[in-house]
Each structure stands twice: as C-alpha cells, then as structure tokens.
Design brief:
The chain has 413 residues and is mainly β. It is built from 1 helix and 20 strands. This is Long-chain fatty acid transport protein.
Length: 413
C-alpha cells in the first residue's frame, strides 16, 4: 500500500510541480499587468500614459518620464490530494525596475526581478512485507535576473523594437530521503543536490502603435527569447544515518559537475485597444517549447507550454472630482497548458485576476505623480484526478510606481 502526502514548506513557491525544470517561472510582469491576466506583448500605454513593460522592451521607446516601479507579493496556497490537504503562506520580493527616457534616442530600463522559485515537500509511505518505510522529496531555492534593456522607435511611423540583456543567477536545492521510522536499526539515506545556475539571457520585442482617431489607439506587439544557454553546476552528496543519531557517514563523497542547460524558446503575441485615459483592453497568446530543456535523472521529459491571457483596465472619469472615479479598475483571466505531464495528464494552470491602481497626490505642478497598485490572482493548478495534486492559490501583489520628469530644468518668468 502506498500513501502520498503533501506538506507545507517555508519557501517562495509552494508547488510540487516546481520540482521540474528550473522551478515555477515568475514572468517579467508588473502588478498592473498581472491584474489584467498577464497582458504583456501589446502593452505600451496604460491610462493614456507610457508604462514600464519589462516583458516587451520595445515599449521603452514610448517613455516620456523617468519611471520607478517596485513590488512585493504573498502566496496563500492550499495543496490537496485524495482526502488530504495542507495550507501554506509566504511573502517575497517582487521586482524593482527603473525606466529612463532618452527622448528621440529611445528609452533605457534596468532592474532586478525573480526568474523562478522552487518549493516542494512530499512523502510516500510504502510496505515491503512487514517492513514499512518512507520516501520523501523536498526542494527549495530560486533564481533571479538582473537586466539592462533598450528600446527605440524606427523610421517607420509607429514601429519600435527593443531588447533586454539579463544575467541569471541563483541556487536550487533538491533532497530525496528514504527513512525507516519503525526500524531504528536500519540506516536512513539522504541524497542532496545543490544546483548553481548562472548565465546570460537575451530577449527582444517589437511593437506597432497606431492612432485610430477619437482618442482611440491600437498596439500590436511581439516578444520572444532565444533558446538561451546557461551554466548549471551541480554538487551532489549522499549520507546515511541511524534513527535520531544524525549523520553517521558520507556514502558518496561530494561530487561536482558542470553542464549547460538550454532554456526554452519563447514567443508571445498580443494586441491592446485603448481610449485615452479611460480604458484599455487586450489579449495575448504565449508559447514556449521546453522539450529540449535537460531534465534531471528520473524526471519526465517536458513538452510545450501554451497559454492565453485577456484583460483590461477602466477609469470611470479622469476629470471627476470624486476620488473613486479616477481609480484604475483592472480585471483579467489567463489559462495555460503547462509543459508538465504527469500520470498521462497535462498539468493546467488557470486564474482570474483583479486589481486597482490607486493614484496619489501629484507634486511639482503635475511633473511627479505616483500610484499604488494592488492585485489579486485567484487560481488553480493541477487536478485531483489521476492521483495528482491540486493547488488552489491566492497571490496578492502590492506595487508602487513613481513617474517623474527628472533632468528637466525649471524656469522663472
């Protein structure tokens, strides 16, 4: 008889599915974009103003103010399998990014954001005759990305291109254990693998912006990445121990080996339609191919990830003296067929999102304005069918944006 249990863990991801690949990807999205389902490729303006869209660097060419954007987030997750469930919660750094307009020379952006998180902990109880033993797996860690990007308008009216160069770095730890809790005379074994990931990333984008008259405009966008190759240095060590006495001996001396990992080739296409300061709606289609990404020994091969996102933003009346009429209200939906297939079942991820953009008082005669961005994502990943784990999660994002006309010299009449 085998029984499987999922457990809580204190990391920035609470997903058993984060053990595959490089963990649970975070995407290069701000809270504003996440509240609209994760719109990215075609996002250039929000509320009639240029926005910092890291996921498509072509958007940097639209900036007319210096932009600071930062955030943090919290996860609240319920993991369920069969009749068992467990609840987890954590808070973590979201991102920090700057955008600097260069007038006719385009725009520049740089910052730091999470790339992926690993956090899982589960065990199975087994019987071999009268012998009962427990097999468990656990993992934690995360990867971050520092980036520098540039976007510029092309001579063709409305067309812009851009690129981000990033440096990926971080550590991931995976541990597998076999224990004999009812037989202290039998040694327990632990295998620990520490993965150190480093490498340069390149992603790029293109946008076409067109004014449609009557304050209406449309942006069509594409963003993608190369199948970037990064270095993965793995340190592996095995130990044995007797019940409750700690490490007895190292059965496998620490072994370190290097290999290169091919990251997936990614593509996103999207379109947004806007009317001045009043509203924006859009849709995205996203695709990435993980089939060439090398998995660790004993794990299933990955496949293709395909997803759609729809969403928008609405401001009731930008000129109204009533505060609630100048708040940005956002809503979105996303659906992904992930790259993971387990027990002959594709793991899907879907979520509804909503949020608010809360403006703060303008300063310096309108040269400086700020906004607090609050977003909630309510989703589910996986299923109870086919003996799998279902995740139901709420992710809350809190962001802060400052737009300022730095470097502009004041004048006195």
């Amino acid at each position: 008889m085998n029984e499987t249990t999922v457990q809580a863990q204190t990391t920035t991801s609470h997903s058993p599915y984060s053990q595959f690949g490089l963990g649970q990807l975070r995407e290069d999205l701000t809270p504003q974009q996440r509240s609209m389902g994760g719109l990215s490729a075609g996002v250039r303006y929000l509320g009639g103003m240029p926005t910092l869209n890291i996921s498509n660097p072509a958007s940097y060419s639209a900036m007319n103010r210096v932009i600071f954007d930062g955030s943090m987030y919290g996860n609240f997750t319920q993991l369920s399998k069969s009749n068992a469930s467990d609840n987890t919660a954590d808070f973590a750094f979201g991102h920090i990014a700057f955008g600097i307009p260069l007038k006719k020379a385009g725009g520049l952006s740089f910052g730091l954001l999470p790339f992926s998180d690993v956090g899982y902990n589960a065990y199975e109880d087994h019987n071999l005759g009268d012998l009962r033993y427990r097999k468990s797996i656990a993992g934690e860690g995360g990867l971050n990305k520092a980036y520098l990007g540039y976007g510029v308008n092309l001579p063709i009216k409305g067309l812009s291109i851009g690129a981000n160069v990033g440096y990926l770095f971080g550590n991931l730890t995976d541990k597998s254990t076999v224990e004999f809790p009812y037989n202290p005379e039998i040694y327990n074994t632990v295998q620990t693998n520490n993965r150190y990931v480093r490498g340069v990333l390149l992603d790029y984008g293109m946008q076409y912006f067109r004014s449609l008259g009557n304050r209406m405009s449309m942006t069509i966008g594409y963003s993608g990445s190369l199948d970037n190759r990064v270095n993965n240095e793995t340190s592996s060590m095995g130990t044995i121990s007797s019940g409750g006495t700690g490490a007895l001996d190292t059965v496998i001396s620490p072994v370190t080996f290097d290999r290169n990992l091919n990251l997936p080739l990614r593509h996103s296409v999207g379109v947004t339609l806007s009317k001045g300061y009043n509203w924006t709606v859009g849709a995205d289609f996203k695709y990435s191919d993980w089939s060439k990404v090398q998995q660790r020994e004993g794990q299933p091969e990955l496949g293709k990830n395909m997803g759609v996102a729809i969403g928008g933003q609405f401001k009731p009346d930008p000129t109204s003296p009533r505060y609630l009429n100048i708040v940005d209200y956002r809503l979105g939906f996303r659906y992904n067929q992930t790259e993971v297939t387990l027990n002959n079942r594709r793991i899907n991820d879907m979520a509804v999102s909503a949020g608010f953009g809360i403006p703060l008082a303008q300063k310096s005669f309108g040269r400086t304005f700020s906004m607090i961005n609050i977003t909630g994502e309510f989703g589910q990943r996986g299923t109870l069918q086919n003996n799998l784990v279902r995740e139901r999660y709420i992710t809350l994002h809190l962001g802060f944006t400052i737009n300022d006309t730095w470097f502009i010299r004041g004048s006195i009449d």
